[in-house]
Amino acid sequence: MSDHATAEKKPHRFFAHHFNTVGQQAGAAKMGMWIFLATEVLMFSGLFLAYFVVRGLYPEMVLSSHELLDKTMGGINTVVLLTSSFTMAMAVRYAQLGDNKRCAQQLLVTTACAFIFMGVKYVEYTGKFSHGVFPGGYFNYDEAIQYAHSHGHSFRGLPHVFFGLYFVMTGLHGVHVVVGIGVILWVYLKAQKGHFSTDYYAPVENVGLYWHIVDLVWIFLFPLLYLVK
Amino acid sequence: MADAHENNESNYLTATRGLKSWLFTVDHKRIGLMYLVGVLVFFLAGGLFAITLRTELLTPEGGDFISATTYNKMFTLHGAVMVFLVIIPSVPAALGNFLLPLMLGAKDVAFPRLNLLSFWVYTLGSMFFLFTLAAGQLDTGWTFYTPYSNTTGTAVVSATFGAFILGFSSILTGLNFIVTVHKMRAPGLTWNKLPLMVWALYSTAVIQVLATPVLAITLLLLIVERTLMIGIFDPAMGGDPVLYQHFFWFYSHPAVYIMILPGFGIESELIAVHSRKHIFGYKAIALSSVAIAIISFVVWGHHMFVSGQSELAGIVFSFLTFAVAVPTAIKTFSWVATLYKGSIEFNTPMLYGLMFLFTFTIGGLTGIFLGALSVDVHLHDTYFVVAHFHYVMMGGTIIAFVGGIHHWWPKMFGVMYSEKWGKIAALFIFVGFNMTFFNQFVLGQQGMPRRYWSYVPQFQQQHVLSTIGSYLLLIGFTVIAIYLVHSLRNGKKVGPNPWGAQSLEWTHTASPPIEHNFHGQPRVENDPYNFPEIDRTGATDAH
Amino acid sequence: MILSLFTAPENADAKQAVADAAAPAAEAASAPLPPLETAHSWAMPTQASTFAESTDNLYWFITALDTAFFILIIGAMGYFMWKYRRRSKEQKTSSITHNGMVEFLWSAIPTVLLLVIFVWGECDFVKQSVPPQDALEVRVTGQKWYWTVEYPKYPGVTLNSSTDEPALTLMVPKGKPVRLTMTSNDVIHSFYVPAFRLKRDVIPGRYTQIWFEATKVGEFNLFCTEYCGDLHSQMGGVVKVLEPADFERALKEAGTLEQEEGESMADYGARIYKRRGCVACHSIDGTDGTGPSWKGIWGRTENLASGTVTIEGERGQQYIRESILEPNKEIVSGYAPQMPSYQGQLDDTQISALIEYMKTLK
Ligand code: HEA
Ligand code: HEA
Ligand code: CUA
Ligand SMILES: [Cu+2]
What we know:
The complex is a heterotrimer. By secondary structure, chain A is mostly helical. Chain A contains seven helices and no strands. By secondary structure, chain C is an alpha+beta fold. Chain C is built from eight helices and twelve strands. Residues 142, 145, 189, 224, 226-228, 232, 235 of chain C line the site of dinuclear copper ion (CUA).
């Protein structure tokens, strides 16, 4: 693994000296990222578990409540995130080729998508709040029931549980998107400065992996929350 | 090999000076030491909480020393501090950080800055606990069971959030260690030449990475349940309180192996090095750790036999619980076998090594009672359980930890402590420990429930014994603290390898090690347990 | 600070204890002694249920097995420590590193033994979880920090534990299966009778069931074993097992609080106060509990959501009646709506008795 330090050519300027070789450093970074992603998946799977338990306890309630979520907005966000995943993949590709300029462009588009996503979420949240649909204990039954009727739905059971979960799950995912925006901008700046080269592109790659996970989580959230059947 | 002149060249302690050079260091050795200080400080705190509650238990009547409320806060803080701030970071974060790269022949862990970050996250988390102390403490028990934790007036949110943050510190360390073991091994250091300490740290790291995220989400749900009343755990809001217990134990059972595996690692080193013999059944010990790491994820339900989970669940969990006992059995036997035809030296580290075998075996064996369904119905939430987990956590991990501190002290600081006082303190701890906890088995077996501030008079005898024992422990540990600190200035200097051990941290660098650990890249031919005393002619084996 | 549960002189002897506790908990002025269940302090508690014996057998089996292994391991360790102690620096050591046969044996043997233990424990457990059909129904409700026990078969009969004395909490006939259907009004509690080797969590929002068959006449400790807050350690009581012949009579006598000959309304009220759990939340010495203290309650003015009420005269009587029968209709400001309704548990005379009692608490 690490015993051909001599075989390597002159290391790039981001080479950390506790490593023996550039290859070792890149490999470590990649592995570290994968492990981190594993923890992310496990964390969300905890939430999904909670979701399925609640759904098992109150299937009726979940069905009747999810009607209130706006499928079109959810759909739009799904498309937006998928696009961003694609542009992210492109960015990684360009970084690997050492084409910092194109890489930067793609990253910019990705960030834009992320912002759109958060924008739509903002509209959705405020829309809910304005009709008393707050998480858990703050759920205002009278207002919410009216609101539901005005859309020709009616709740069964305890909708506040569903919306509690809805806000927690999408909220935690939202936090990840915001963090994503941060790190994408960071690699964007690095790309601007032309840091990446054919043998140094680990940051873009890892940010990419992270972004794909954020996307993946949404791919599960959307059907489970918006399209319950 | 390290020559004499290395001793008076600058080392990692003297290389740079000033508080800043410590707080912002990325040197794994310094980070390890800072963890060590933190852990010991909280150990003292947790211990004093324990002493307080033991004192209340001197008499059956409640309230002749502290009120019920205070008592409940005492055992909660004691448990929470000991688990989240002491035992989980103790061996991996403190000793592990110091040792892992040295043992692997690497200059540092894979991600030094991440390492510093996890230390800071640890500090942040502990801040939240201190804040909890200031803001009305905590009275939920370290398990934060719902719905009690949703309804009690104490500072549950800040405490759980503290634990939540500490979780991330634990995850980052684990992640760092896994990558380090995979990517940073010195040339020639193949997997089956790794010191067993490394194997232990590795399997611990795996559990940390896989289990802790679930704790994170559990605590997060607990927090939103309390703040937003989501209605997942709280029956008053339509939730299911037992679901919380599943979530909690899904982390917290694997966590008990996060606590013990590093102890196993230390034990293997102590036993082998101080009896100058190749560890018996290297592969079995290494792989049984991995086996434990895997099985430990499917036994959590043994904490819930009487919680109203389905009979079937109970049966399955009981079965798996016994399955997880076997790998531990293998280790225990292998350690004893290692002593066979060795050359055993009774220095302080070894005394703890042997003490570990004694106390941990009792702790483990009593786990068997609890795993047996019908018996656990009687023993659940009695002092039998309390005794069990102190025998494994205190008598296992903490004893090993203290042994490890004594074993690597000369490496960390280049000085030796007083053997005489070391032995005296060890005696106090051995006697004190068994006095405190052995008769708690009897208490439990007679039906003395845990978390009781007052109790039936017939239990007083045992309780008094137990309390006296805890005072002996306090004395013992205080003595240790004194002579260790004293040795820093006045201890006699030691060479690179006082124990004649064979792993890299002893053979290839000075005591204390230089800032970048090694001169050049060490290469490994030798096996870490291949001691010069071993008789290759086989003559020793003959008779 | 409430004096703790079961404060008995150290060397009280078992017979004495049983005798005292047997006395109706009514004259609880002098707290009766707890049932002392263990002859000497290293034995298991008395075996008083059909489960106890086989549970204990397994317990002792594991003890024997563990002791054997412990002696084996620590014995070997001690022997090696002595035999192979370092005599000289250059003492040679053996080169053995492993031994397949030995390692196989010490993995296989424990495995087998552990399987035995598993099956044994499992069988007993299953036996304990299927109640027989003809079992006597009992409803148990846990609540900070006392138990309420009712018998569907005997309407009007209610037993309550008390936080400041070992009150009679559960009465069962000897040799008859009894099924407990349990739930909690607040947090999780756990119903534990050591002498029966019986324990089950009591969970809010759901019903848990256990059954047992008592085999010994006598009195036994009942503990709460799930941490439930301040008085967790006082949430205990006495389980009394009687000959089937005496059971019904004794139960009715203890379970229905009739006013006794020549007992004044106030004293009667005092008794109800102790035996119906009011004591758990309402002090009579002014200390604030889960609920307002009753010291000086009569004539006091309370702030309610709907304004204030002065507790005196007709209105006062009325108010107190409501507070007892529909407690959460009017909440005294500064308190949580935690009081359970006593609808159907307290009749008018009993409520009037309580009021008379309150009047005496100046
Ligand atoms: C370091 C931590 C640690 C470790 C290593 C263990 C190890 C084990 N524990 Fe323990 N346990 C805790 C920490 C730990 N535990 C804690 C903290 C709690 C309480 C939490 C709370 O409620 O607050 C607990 C509670 C607990 C319970 C729940 C009790 C209850 O609440 O009702 C159970 C039940 O099965 C259990 C079982 C076991 C078993 C079977 C092992 C096994 O891994 C032990 C295996 C070892 C041996 C068996 C000894 C060596 C083997 C031999 C000598 C071979 C021969 C032996 C035989 C053939 C029998 N433990
Ligand atoms: C690592 C884990 C750990 C450790 C080490 C201990 C150590 C001790 N515990 Fe611990 N205990 C728990 C974990 C631990 N405990 C947990 C998880 C619970 C459950 C809590 C709950 O129910 O929620 C519990 C509960 C618990 C109870 C039950 C309370 C109840 O149910 O009512 C009791 C009662 O006796 C007790 C006693 C003690 C005592 C006397 C010690 C003694 O061994 C302490 C001795 C230590 C000292 C006195 C400090 C001395 C230190 C120094 C002087 C600093 C210098 C040190 C060095 C240089 C090494 N503990
Ligand atoms: Cu009720 Cu503990
Ligand atoms: Cu466990």
